[in-house]
Amino acid sequence: MTLSVEIGDLTRVEADAIVNAANSMLLGGGGVDGAIHAAAGPRLLEACRRLRNTTHRDGLDVGDAVATPAFDLPASWVIHTVGPNLHRGQDDPARLASCFARSLDVAAELDVRSIAFPAVSAGAYGWPVTDVARIAVMTCRGWLAEHPEASPQDVRFVVLDERLRDVFDEALGAA
């Protein structure tokens, strides 16, 4: 069981599943969400539209997660999660922690061995990256400890630059 951080492009990571910091409508957007939709190709949007027309008619709740195939990405699955938006007053750390825990639950249901997370809610949603890193690491460590035999066993945080890597490294060392 490993928990690590790396600098990279989430859309190029070779992992069984990558996590999309999605919006509740699941129909693409900016930032990580837009990059994943662009790299996965139009079939990802079609899959998300199917979710919206069937199991998620009202969209995906903050803190929840759902999977689609990854289509043109190197991963097999995209696990979409909706982080809390601090600019909208969504400041409950439990909702942010739920994004990581629910994504791991979905990954376990899919029996994936490796999963790569972005810094959910740290970008346009306004959460300080130090809080995101601390909550992400604590939640993932706790989930892995509670599910020692479950997949995934390789959990990675993929960030854009050295500054973010250093923040996640610090959280990994502190937890």
Describe the structure.
It holds the Pfam family Macro. GO terms for molecular function: O-acetyl-ADP-ribose deacetylase activity. Helices cover 41% and strands 19% of the residues. It is α/β, with parallel strands linked by helices and 175 residues long. A six-stranded mixed sheet has the order 1-6-5-2-4-3, sandwiched between helices. A hairpin with a 7-residue loop joins strand 3 (65-69) and strand 4 (77-82).
Q: Helix proportion of residues, in percent?
A: 40-55%
Trace the largest sheet across and list its strands.
1-6-5-2-4-3
What is the global morphology? globular
Q: Which stretches of 5+ consecutive residues score pLDDT under 50? A: none
Q: What CATH architecture do you see?
A: 3-Layer(aba) Sandwich
- The CATH H-level homologous superfamily: Leucine Aminopeptidase, subunit E, domain 1
For the residues shown, what is the average pLDDT?
Answer: 96
State the CATH class. Alpha Beta
- The third-level CATH topology is Leucine Aminopeptidase, subunit E, domain 1
Task: Please give the domain count.
Answer: 1
How far the N terminus sits from the C terminus, by CA atoms, comes to 15 Å
Q: What integer value in Å does the Rg equal? A: 15 Å
The number of distinct helices, counting runs of at least 4 residues, comes to: 5
Q: Let me know the largest β-sheet.
A: 6 strands, mixed
Q: Report the portion of residues in β strands.
A: 15-25%
Write down the secondary-structure element order. Answer: EEHHEEHEHEH
Number of strands: 6
Structural class: alpha/beta
